[in-house]
Amino acid sequence: EIVLTQSPGTLSLSPGERATLPCRASQRVSSSYLAWYQQKPGQAPRLLIYGISSRATGIPDRFSGSGSGTDFTLTISRLEPEDFAVYYCQQYGTSPITFGQGTRLEIK
Amino acid sequence: QVQLQESGPGLVKPSQTLSLTCTVSGGSISSSDYYWSWIRQPPGKGLEWIGYIYHSGTTHYNPSLQSRVAMSVDTSKNQFSLRLSSVTAADTAVYYCARERVIFGANLPDYWGQGTLVTVSS
């Protein structure tokens, strides 16, 4: 199975700053099938980005995705207070679907 | 907008079978565009995909759980279900049901239920 590594495990930033969250795959992700989810405490994950860079319905344009092959990035251009949460990358092109272990974005 | 709601016992004894049901509203489980899946998250840990079922009954499971998992679908009730046998404490987790949308030939979980905590303990 494809292992996704997200490092750092925790990122401390201030509102208004730019956040860059990396995700590295153990092998090439098939056909750009890479997604990002946001999870807040006590809530289900919410789909943010799919196909590496396509925003899901209703997702603000401060969220963007990029990358190719085995290296991917979620960028939040200007952090809003509601953006502090845990972010997971996921590959869905090769079975089984796998997730990274998550990056916690916390207020500095 | 589609909504998914998990239901089932919150406590299961070791070696017994965990059973959960997901009720889908706001859309038909028989739609050809979607598959229906289960994903779990142990407390304080990451996410693990368990598998999916199609309205026809076709299933696909994570190899790590395949020997213990069974999914079923009831289209008349717009529900699908999960059974996980021979549970241990390692199966304690929040269990989510989700809709998988087929996008360019691959299944993407796009809408999730709120999740239900299942604890395995005697």
The greatest interface here is: A-B, 25 and 24 residues
Count of separate DSSP helical elements of chain A: 0
Oligomer state equals: heterodimer
Largest sheet of chain B: 7 strands, mixed
Distance, first to last CA of chain B:
39 Å
**Strand residues, percent of chain A:** over 45%
Topology of chain A as a string of helices (H) and strands (E): EEEEEEEEEEE
> Percent of residues of chain A in helical segments?
under 10%
- By helix and strand content of chain A, what is the structural category? mainly beta
Q: Which regions of chain A contain 5 or more consecutive residues with pLDDT less than 50?
A: none
Record field, number of beta strands of chain A: 11
The unreliable regions of chain B are none
- Roughly how many Å is the radius of gyration of chain A? 13 Å
Number of continuous helical runs of chain B: 0
Biggest sheet details of chain A? 7 strands, mixed
What is Rg of chain B? 14 Å
Number of strands of chain B: 11
Summarize the helix and strand pattern of chain B as letters.
EEEEEEEEEEE
Sheet/helix structural class of chain B = mainly beta
**What overall geometry of chain A do the principal axes of the alpha carbons give?**
globular
